[in-house]
Amino acid sequence: MTAFLQNCFAGLSLGSTYALVALGFVVIFKSTGVINFAQGGLLALGAYLGYTFSNNLAVAFGVAVLLCCASAALVGATFERIVLRRMVGQPPFAVIMITIGLLFILEPMITAIWGFDQKQITNPWNIRTVEAGGLVFGVRDLWTIGLTAAVVAAFFVFFRYSSLGLAMRVTAFDPEAALAQGISARRVYATSWAIAAALAALAGILMAAGPGGLTPSIGFIALAAFPAMILGGMDSPAGAVLGGLVIGLAEALTRGYQDELFSWAGSNVSVIVPYLLMIVILLIRPYGLLGTKEVRRV
Amino acid sequence: MYAKRWRSWQYGLALAGAALLVAACGGAGDEGDTGGGQAGEPASGVGFDGTTIKLGVLSPLSGPIAVIGQPLTEGNKVWFDALNAKGGVAGKYKVELVQEDTQYKPDVTVQQYNKVKGEVVAFTQVLGTAPTLAVLPLLDSDNMLAAPASLDAFWVREQHLLPVGAPYQIQAINSMQHYLTEGGGNRQSRICTMVQDDVYGEAGQQGVDFAAEQLGFTVANTQKFKVGTENYAGQIGALAAARCEMVFLTATPTDAGKIWGTAAQARFAPKWYAQSPSFVNALAKSAVAPYLRQYVTIAAEGTEWGDTSVPGMKQMIDDVEKYAPQQQPDYYFAFGYNQARAMTAVLEKAVENGDLSRDGVMKASEQIGTLSFQGLTGDYTYGPAAKRNPPRSTTLFSVDPDKPFGLATLKYNFTSDAAKQFQFEKANP
Question: What is the ipTM of this complex?
Answer without folding.
Answer: 0.77
